[in-house]
Structure formats: structure tokens, C-alpha cells
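This section describes the prediction task in plain terms. A model, or a person checking by hand, is given the sequence of a single protein chain and must write out its three-dimensional structure as a string of C-alpha cells. No templates, partner chains or ligands are provided. The sample shown here is typical of the held-out split.
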Amino acid sequence: MGDPICAPSTPLLPSALAVVRISGEALGPRLSGWFPLPPPRRATLCALSWGGFRERVLVLHFPAPRSYTGEDVVELQVPGNPLLVRRLLDHLGSLGIRLAEPGEFTRRALLNGKQDLLQAEALRDLIQAATEAQVLQAEAAAGGLPAWLREARETLGPWVAAAEAAVDYGEEEGLSLDPGDLGGFLAGLEQTFHVEQQRAEAARWLRDGIIVVLAGRPNAGKSTLFNTLLGRDRSIVTPQPGTTRDSLDAQVEWRGLPLLLHDTAGLRDTEDPIEREGVRRIRPLLEGCDLILHLVPAGDAAEDPFVRDLLAPFKGRSQVIRTFGDLAPGPGPWEGEPRICAPSGDLDGLEGVLRSRFLGPLSPEACRGALGTPRQRELLTELLRQVRDLRSLDPGAPAELMASGLQGLWTLLTRLSGEDRAESTLDQVFGGFCLGK
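The expected answer:
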């Protein structure tokens, strides 16, 4: 760590401007043969040559430790020609400044105490966010350690120390843990972990998006619903059955929920080879989605047997939605099942299904700031399991067992916050970053 690195912070595409970032220790002497560093934090226009080109470059210098990485940082703003940028990176390589690995700038910021692991994960999510809901979720998580996590560490620390003291000096000093006080503390901790795990599971869907497949017989209203959710006519809608022969997909944010929608061919037993191929292509979508919306017109007396049998293996993530609800306003076979009318925009029944399945009792706003990455959810699950195991111990259990369990909780909390910086954890987090971060 500390060896100089460089990377473009902007895509290698034709543009008005490209930014190349350099970080490392003592960059001044290394760059002095090319150009002198300008005064700190003052944008300075320089005429620089590299790779046979001579260009005007805006240079910014951020000396350590007051920089993004905590090291000396230099940013070069150059014309956004990909060839110029590649030649610039080659020139920096000739000066002994290597190309950074994905996420290495942020990794150095973490190791130099400029941010914590949760902030780094939030930054990665912000870069990758595709909808407003995902941006808001990432921004809410960018504040660093949540208050509940900070409080859990502060209250757990004295208990860990007391338990270890009881093990080491209990007999000589008469030290022991009060079962009643410890039980109350663990009960509060369990409740906190339980609430945060619920929030994390809901936040997962806001972070990752919900993959939804629209399925049903021909003319069940799939393409109409698809277009309504998108707010534009993407899929062809006609009275002719079998209009949609292939699947269409689109990403959309609808009522605060990020959705990846798949409009599919009408499901029916047919001899038409194109339609049969369309039906065949639906199965991988059914296997990989989070929710199948089985659309059945409200006027149908029963589900189509062909569709029912095809969707039977996916019953656990399939939900019947009655469409064209305005055409059958009275009691009917759809009674008790969610009903919608896409042409009129009556989709409250669909919203209720999505929120209850993926957010439970929580609103998208209540999930903001929750720990929703796979790493975070895994650690929260383990925290909840271990605190429940501790609560199940007999009050007369050896102090060593309790001390070991409390120490295990402490270790999990430090891993969650990023203080326990195992290389495998850092590789998992920063492997998803772009080069310039």
C-alpha cells in the first residue's frame, strides 16, 4: 500500500472531458520530471505532453492526508478522447505509476481511515443504482455506522469485559455475571437485531430490484399492464391472440419499487412453431424471477389448465392477479383475489401484492439506511442466531461459555462495521467497484 496508482474516473468514451486520478505517497518527486505540482486544492491549467500529444490539462493536487484516499492525490482533467486517455495511462505507467485495481482508491480510503466499510458499500451501491429508489437507498446508507450498531457495540463492550474478568479472576475476586441483568440485556439486543434483519430483508429488494414476470394465457392483459407500468407503449397490444411472440424486458421504478419487468408470450398449447418457441423461452425467466404475476381475466370462470400446469412448479412465487376488473364489477370467480384494471390505472391491488411480499409491513422510506447487501444480511442473520443461542443457555452454565458467546457477538459486530478487515471481506466488497473508484 502506498505505491502510486492511476485510473480513469470517467468512462473511456468520446466526451468533452475525461478525469484521470493518481494516488500514492510522495507524488511530487515522481511527477517532477514531467510537471511541478500546483498549489494544493487550486485548479491550475498546465500544458503537458505525453505519447506524442500536447494538451492543455487542468490539474488539481490534494496532499495527504486531506484527500479522498488519505494519500497524495492528483487529478488530471483532459480532453475526453479515449486515445488520449489511453496514451496518458501508458505515460503514467512509464513513470512507475501502475493501473489501479477495481475499487482500489476506495479501499485505500478505508484502510487510511477516511471512511468505513459501510460507507464504501453504500458508495458502490450508489454508483450502480439505476432507479431513484436505489439512489435514495444508497444515499441513506452512506452516513456510516447506524446508531443502533454504534449503541450495540458500546453496550456490548462492558459485558464482554465483565465476562472475561469472571473467567480469569472469578474465583479469586468473587466476580460473576448477574443472570437477570445479562438476560435483559440480551433480550434487548435480540429485539434490535430482529428489527434490523427485517429492515435488511426489505431493503434488499429496494437495493437489488424485483424481477417480475408477467405470465398468462393470450389476451390476459400482460402487454397492457407492461405498458402501463412503464408509462409508455413498449409492447404491441391488439385483440389478436398471440401478438407477443418473444419476451420483452424493461427496468422501471413504480410507486417507489424498482422493478425489472418481463412481458412474455401468451401461454397456450399451439402448433405454431413461433409461439411454441416463445412459450419455451419463458421457463428460464420463471426459474430466475422473484415473482410471477399470473394474469387471469376477471371474466374467466377458471384458470387455463395449460397455464396452471406450466406454472405449478413455481407456485411458491406465483400470484394470481385478475385483470380487466372493470368488465366484471360484481361478485365473480375472482372474489378474494387481487383485481386490477391497467387501462384505467387501477393498480392498487398489484401494489398491495408487491409491498406485502417484499417489504412486509414496512414502507420504502422505513427501509432507507438499512443494511441490505448480501454480506450485511448474512452477518445480521448470524448475529440473531448467536444472541438467541446465548439466551437459551442455562443460567448456571459455565462462565466460559457465556464469555465465548459474548466475544463471538463482538467479533460479528466488528465484521459488520468493517473494523475486522479480513482480506476476503475487502475483496468481496471492492471487487464490484469500477477502476476509478
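For orientation: Residues 122 and 233 are 34 Å apart (CA to CA).
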